[in-house]
Amino acid sequence: MSADIDPLDPLALRAAARSERKSVGRLRTLVGSSLALVWSSGRRVLLALVAVQLVAAAAMAGQVLAVERVLSGILAAQADPGAEVMDKVLTPVLALAALSALAAAAGAVQVQLQRLLGESVGRTMWSKVLGVATGVGLRYFESSEFYNRLNRVQTSALVRPYQVTQGLLSMASALAASIGLGITLYLISPLLLPLVVVAGIPLLITSGRESRLEFDFSVQQTPAIRLRSYFTMLQTGRDEAKEVRAFGLAGWLAGRFDGLYAAYLRDLRAHVLRRGLLSLVGQLGAAVVLGGTLIALVALIDHGDIGVAEAGAAIVAIRLLATQVQGLFRGVQSIFESGLFLDDLRQFLALGEAAIDEDTGTEAPERFAHLRAEDVRFRYPGADRDALKGVDVELRAGEVVALVGENGSGKTTLAKLLAGLYQPDAGHVLWDEQDVSSFRPSSLRERIAVVFQDFVRYALPATDNIALGRVDEPADPAKVRAAAAAAGAETMLDRLPNGFDTVLSRLFAGGTDLSGGQWQRVALARSFYRDAPLVILDEPSASLDPRAEHELFDTLRDALRARTALFISHRFSTVRGADRIYVLHEGEIVEQGTHDELVARDGRYAELYRLQTQLQVKGEPTRPPSPSSTQLRG
Questions:
Q1: Is residue 50 within 8 Å of 180, Cβ to Cβ?
Q2: Which helix H or strand E contains 566, and what residues bound it?
Q3: Cys staple from 333: which of 196, 207, 385, 511, with CB 3.0 to 4.6 Å?
Q4: Is residue 432 part of a domain?
């Protein structure tokens, strides 16, 4: 597949797949890359599997020779009235039985070795795919086509490298057996051998079209399969279970799921029919040639060119050889069919390689005196307008800066740019006059702690949940406890059945659930444990009750320990003590200043503030909280 093919364009993928042609060079490339992967995943198992397949091939060829010896012994005994049949056939019969047992045992061992090797390859491929999924830029996760590619790789391409190698091993086994059987058949009659080989050509001709049909079907069905998986999750997810029951959604969800599955089965039936017809054509062609081979054998017997014993052995050899030749061509088909998926996989893994290549630059400084965003613009993939339009903000070391605005105003997007999770389409983010684009991205993110509104609730012990804030070093129990204390979570966690060792989920035995507010404190503790110079808090008190919210922000400056904090909030009571407040509206900074300055300006901030504070009680507004509050002030 060409290097300039868009890895997220399904039409480009299908066109590239159709343009691929079977060739010895391409076969060599597919075999080489897949074999290298399997070799690195489990070389000992691979060598053992090859050895077993060679034993099985040798046993198969030996069975043909044993059959010929048995028939020859029987005929010799019949020609000599004084001879004992058993004396003539005992040894070849025992040999035939032993070789049959050996072939059966080799087949059983082969199945288990293939299973072990398949899991080894699966582990390697999962590591590669998950590395891409966690390494690519956040923008990829705004693209549905990236999810389609990820899903297709997970469901199809992950097993294809092993299937290519399995096809190669099957080819090697079939080739070894074919050579042995071919020599035997050639010794009986040189005419029969090429006829048997020709019988596999119809299968090879039809296999190319089958391969492309399979890949096209996979690309076409990926969005529907993803949607079906989503409806499965809605019906089985723990978090979704309560709402499904509260709103009586079970029947509706089941209907949508069944409809999606019915559509898939309808398409699958048509696909299977097309593949089946192609396979039938190939098999009929092979059967015609094989029938001609048997007719030729009968003619040779009729003309006395071969004897009865040789004819019996030839029939066995023809049948076995025809099977092996077909297996040989099926192996070729398997390799080329998997090759289309491997091209898909290779393009996906290239995203991860690009992410590694992009993680270059100078190390981000340990601290900064000021951080600025200058004329920053950003647009999400597929969006028709900018999420940020020429935004300018500044954070000085040790300050607490707030972002406020209505939903969709761009607050979280701006936070992600300042956190180094997105790169601006225009403008600059500067640390002490140095553009962060010159820093190694991962080193920049190491200097920033982020707690998003939809933070992850890890089904792990409390200690791990907090220590995940810095995984580049072993968890320090004392630092974990200090971070929990700073977030007001220490006492709560100590009261759990196993204290900080309690698993924070009922998904696993011995675990327990936390309330939303308790989880928010754990997430805050995780950010404090990171001990980064910049802390970004997205709605840090969204799940807290008013008392807990007051306690949190009353101690927030002490918890930050002179670190710079940027926090986003819809609650204006939590931002009043910030050193500076930025008001965003439709992706633009429309106001900035302290709480008192913004209220006195009587602009958008003052309007939103009044909407929150002037609650109607019997038609009379309540007195708003005094603007002289010193919350968050140093």
A1: no
A2: strand 564-568
A3: 207
A4: yes
Of 200, 202, 204, 206, the C-alpha closest to 275 is: 206
Question: Could you tell me the two tokens for 286?
Answer: 């092979």
Total of domains in the chain: 3
As a residue count, the chain comes to: 634
Give 372-420 pLDDT, tens digit per residue. 999 999 998 878 899 999 999 999 988 889 999 888 889 989 998 998 8
CA distance 527 to 50: 52
The domain in which residue 626 lies consists of 363-447+532-634
Per-residue tokens: 465: 């949940």
Report the distance separating Cα 293 and Cα 520, nearest Å. Answer: 77
- Residue 51, helix vs strand vs coil: helix
Q: What angle is formed at CA 508 by the lines to CA 505 and CA 514, rounded to 5 degrees?
A: 15
Q: Residues 182, 337, 151, CA angle at the centre, nearest 5°? A: 150
Per-residue pLDDT tens digits for 129-173? 888 887 777 777 777 778 777 877 777 666 777 777 777 777 777
Residues with Cβ within 8 Å of residue 349, at least 6 apart in sequence: 128, 129, 132
CATH number at residue 504: 3.40.50.300
The single-letter code of the amino acid at 295 is I
Judge whether 524 and 537 are in contact, CB under 8 Å.
Answer: yes
Q: Which two tokens stand for residue 272?
A: 């299977």
